[in-house]
Design brief:
Length: 175
């Protein structure tokens, strides 16, 4: 279902000044028929990566991760993010991943989906379960805040889960 993807370009790495937690951000880009997208892959301590993407049309919008383009290319866009994750995992076999299924925001009506159990979270959850097996990753889905993690089983997943929960609470969870 998420096998097709767009050609990907790695735009570079920006090292973080806050080295105590986030090490930096990898930037990737791809183009659909109508838009150019940026994928930001935040790289944290313990080989943990958080994947986020947006269209350049909304690059400066404060809710850029929440806006839908109505392009109806979800499977191929998510498939592209999966390919980026597979590439990272190939280079770093200790990699673990996470994301927030952002709640949809409509810039015209200013309507916003609740943060729990979002439409995006349901799609991403399905894509991760389909593309990353339970023999390599411990999957953790939290619908109450639309958070999803895949913990690499080559590490202590209990300790890693505790650290990642703190990271999400500090950096991503909305009150």
């Amino acid at each position: 279902m998420f096998e097709s993807f767009y050609p990907i370009h790695c735009s570079g790495f920006k090292k973080s000044l806050h080295v105590n937690q986030i090490k930096g951000i990898w930037y990737y880009s791809f183009r659909t028929e109508n838009y150019r997208y940026i994928v930001e892959v935040e790289f944290y301590v313990n080989d943990f990566y958080v994947v986020q993407y947006y269209t350049t049309k909304y690059k400066t919008h404060p809710k850029k991760f929440q806006i839908l383009t109505n392009e109806h290319k979800c499977r191929k866009i998510v498939g592209t993010c999966v390919q980026i994750m597979l590439g990272i995992w190939k280079k770093n076999p200790l990699a673990s991943f996470g994301f927030i299924g952002a709640n949809t925001y409509d810039p015209e009506t200013h309507l916003e989906e609740p943060v729990d159990n979002t439409q995006r979270w349901k799609i991403y959850k399905h894509a991760m379960e389909q593309n990353f097996g339970p023999e390599t990753f411990k999957h953790g889905a939290q619908s109450n805040n639309s958070r999803y993690v895949m913990l690499n089983k080559k590490k202590d997943v209990i300790e890693l889960n505790n650290e990642i929960n703190q990271l999400f609470e500090q950096n991503y969870d909305k009150p």
